[in-house]
Amino acid sequence: MSNFPFQRLQADLAGLIARTPAGQRLPSEPDLAKQLGVSRATLRDAMRTFETQGLVRRRQGSGTFVVGKVQALDSGLEVLESLETMAKRLGLGISVSNLSVEQIMADETTAENLTLAVGAPLLRVRRVICADERPVAYLVDILPEEVLHLDDLPADFHGSVLDHLLGRGDSLKTSRANISAIGATAEVAKALQIQRGDVLLHFHSQLFDGGGRIVDYSMSYFIPGYFHFHVVRRVGG
User: Which residue of 48, 100, 139, 177 sits 20 to 30 Å from the alpha carbon of 237, by its own alpha carbon?
Assistant: First the structure.
């Protein structure tokens, strides 16, 4: 398909989305593709633009729904902060759902990222961040039990490992994050109520203490359109 027909398709979809009330489902993919005279594959490609803007949300087994606009979380990445701290600073309301805290054993991947032996005892914390009751981020933290044990967590723990470690006075020095765009796995898609393979912004991070030890290995998955991250850099030379 040439650029002009594709742009016209996106314009038609934009008009349809604008006319559809928030919360209402769009026509099924086969019906919409037939209505617009395109293949389902082409329709999916065009629809991804609106998904990344947060204007529509695909729900597994339910269809594609129009969502109302929410204010995006806009923040720099020069300083490591929890999403809760960012949101509070920006005056945005977020909530936590599906909090899971469990003891696990290190597999090869986690052992390598935490520089531990395979089978070492770990604590895994998983949670979903919601904006206006819509899932927008899925966060996973994995820590050695010697750093954080299940019994160390207070009854009012809401899932922010970073805030908990800072609050108890841990010496945290630096964080290294690899950032990429990925397709949602089945686990992440279920947590975020999206389709498997939908594009997400992925942070793969390690948190170091003052002695250079890795104290937290984390994976963060963000739905594009709800987050605007930026980096301020000095000019080289």
Answer: 177
Beta partners for residue 178, in sequence order: 204
The verdict on pTM exceeding 0.85 is no
- Own/partner contacts of 178-182, CB < 8 Å, gap of 24 or more, are 178/203, 178/204, 178/205, 179/203, 179/204, 180/204, 182/221
Q: Which CATH architecture has domain 73-230?
A: 3-Layer(aba) Sandwich (3.40)
Buried b vs exposed e over 106-137: b needs ≥16 C-beta within 10 Å?
beeebbebbebeeebebbebbbbbbbeebbbb
Comma-separated ranges of CATH 1.10.10.10 domains in the chain: 3-66
Domain with CATH 3.40.1410.10 in the chain: 73-230
Structural fold of domain 3-66: Arc Repressor Mutant, subunit A (1.10.10)
Is the separation of the CB atoms in 81 and 215 below 8 Å? Answer: no
**For 193-236, what is each residue's pLDDT tens digit?**
887 888 899 999 999 999 999 999 999 999 887 888 989 988 98
Alpha-carbon torsion 87, 88, 90, 91, what sign? positive
